[in-house]
Specification:
MetI-like fold; phosphate transport; disordered C terminus; Phosphate transport system permease protein; 312 residues; Phosphate_PstC; 0% strand; transmembrane helix; mainly alpha
Length: 312
C-alpha cells in the first residue's frame, strides 16, 4: 500500500548556497542599519536647532528660513543641470546604440564610463578656471538682450561664477550616469519590435520613435532621477565655482546666487561651533530626506518597467 506525499519535498541547499544567501542577507540588513543610523544621527543632532529660539540661529530668523535659501539653491542648480543633461544623454545613447559603427560605439562607451570616474574637484577646477571665464561674454549678451526674462535679468557677473556655470558643470558630471542607464535600456529593445517597424516601411527615425523610445521611457526617467540625486549632493564643484550671496533669486547670471546645502556645509562647518553646527546638520537632514526621496522614486520607476511580450 502506497501513500501520496503530503507536500513538495525541498531539495537541501548546498553549504556554499547557504553561506552566499546568508552573506547577501546580512549585507542588505547592514545597509539598512547604516542608513537608519545616519538618519537617527542627523535627527538627534539637528533637534537642538529645530527647538532653538530664532534669534540664536545664524541670521536670527529661525531654522526654516535658514535652510530655505540653501534648499532653493540646491534644487535650482540640480534641476537646471538635469534639464541640460537629460536630452543630451538620450541623444548620446541613441547615437551609440542606433547610428554609430560598432567600434566607435564601443570607444564612446568606454569614454563615457571613464568620465564618471573623474573626481568632482577636477570638474570644479575646470569650471572655475576655464568654463567660468568663457561664459562672461555670453551672459553679458543675455543680460543686454534678454534681460526682461527673470532668468537673465542681470547685471551679468564679471567673473562667470554664476548659477548658470554651476548648472553646466553639474550637467557634465551627471551626464555619464544618465547616458549609461539609457544606453543599456536602448540596447535591450526587443529585436522583434525593431524588425516589425522595418517591415512596416518605417525609416530609422520612425523606428526609434515607435520602438526604442517607448521601451526605454522608464529608463530615461529612472536615469534622470539618479543623476538628479548626484547633482543634489554635489559639494566641491559647487563650492569652488559658485559666488554666493545667500539670497533667493532666479537670476542665473549675476553675482548674487543662493548657495547649496552641501556646499554651505563644506564651507561653514570647519569654523562653526555650538548651535551653528546643529543648524548645518539640520540642513544636512533636509538634503538627506530630499536625496533619499529622489533615489527611492527612481528605483521604483526602474523596477516597474514592464517587459514587452515576445521580446526574446
Amino acid at each position: 500500500m502506497t501513500t501520496e506525499p503530503t507536500g513538495r519535498q525541498r531539495t537541501p541547499q548546498r553549504l556554499g548556497d547557504r553561506v552566499f544567501s546568508g552573506a547577501s542577507t546580512g549585507a542588505g540588513v547592514l545597509i539598512l542599519a547604516v542608513l537608519a543610523g545616519v538618519a537617527a544621527f542627523l535627527l538627534v543632532e539637528a533637534w537642538p536647532a529645530v527647538t532653538a529660539p530664532a534669534e540664536d540661529m545664524p541670521g536670527g530668523e529661525g531654522v526654516a528660513l535658514y535652510v530655505w535659501p540653501l534648499l532653493f539653491g540646491t534644487l535650482l542648480s540640480a534641476l537646471l543641470a538635469l534639464a541640460i543633461a537629460a536630452p543630451l544623454s538620450v541623444a548620446i545613447a541613441l547615437f551609440i546604440t542606433q547610428y554609430a559603427h560598432r567600434r566607435v560605439a564601443t570607444t564612446l562607451g568606454y569614454v563615457i564610463d571613464l568620465l564618471a570616474a573623474v573626481p568632482s574637484i577636477i570638474f570644479g577646477l575646470w569650471g572655475v578656471s576655464q568654463l567660468a571665464p568663457l561664459t562672461v561674454d555670453p551672459t553679458g549678451w543675455l543680460a543686454e538682450n534678454l534681460g526682461f526674462i527673470p532668468l537673465f535679468a542681470g547685471p551679468a557677473s564679471s567673473t562667470g561664477r554664476t548659477m548658470l556655470t554651476v548648472a553646466l558643470v553639474l550637467a557634465i558630471m551627471i551626464l555619464p550616469i544618465n547616458t549609461a542607464v539609457v544606453r543599456e535600456a536602448f540596447r535591450q529593445t526587443p529585436r522583434l519590435h525593431e524588425e516589425a517597424s522595418w517591415a512596416l516601411g518605417a525609416t530609422r527615425s520612425e523606428m526609434i520613435r515607435m520602438s526604442v523610445l517607448p521601451f526605454g521611457r522608464s529608463a530615461i526617467i529612472g536615469g534622470s532621477m539618479l543623476g538628479l540625486g548626484r547633482a543634489l549632493g554635489e559639494t566641491m564643484a559647487v563650492a569652488m565655482v559658485l559666488s554666493t550671496s545667500g539670497g533667493v533669486t532666479f537670476n542665473l547670471i549675476s553675482n548674487g546666487n543662493p548657495s547649496t546645502i552641501a556646499a554651505n556645509i563644506a564651507l561653514q562647518f570647519p569654523e562653526s561651533t555650538g548651535i551653528k553646527v546643529n543648524a548645518l546638520i539640520a540642513s544636512g537632514l533636509v538634503l538627506f530626506a530630499v536625496t533619499l526621496a529622489v533615489n527611492m522614486t527612481a528605483r521604483a520607476v526602474i523596477n516597474r518597467r514592464r517587459e514587452f511580450s515576445g521580446a526574446n
